[in-house]
Amino acid sequence: MAQHPSDISRASIQSVWVHLVALYLTIEKEIPSKFVSKVMAKITNPNLKFEWLIPPNLNSYNITANDLTNPETSEEYTKLAREWAEDVWNAWSEHQPKIRQLANKTLEEMK
Q: How many domains does the chain fold into?
């Protein structure tokens, strides 16, 4: 969703935020995916309001989901998936401070 956000609707806006928070927590904070899922669930609270983040230009990406379709080994897939996630996260650099703020605030609330 973060690489190809859909129309500007409440659901798609929230989805972009949730997925960017997940990328931040996974890539920069190295939090295990099981806990990242709990954070994602917490920020899907319908009372939270999210602003529309202008997506990066599609030319900002070096790797797309399509690049993950034909790896020869599971190790190659894992490597490509990590590179893809980092590429998506880096493309949203303009909005990273806001994403970090929400993620860190949510982590504090979950302590």
A: 1
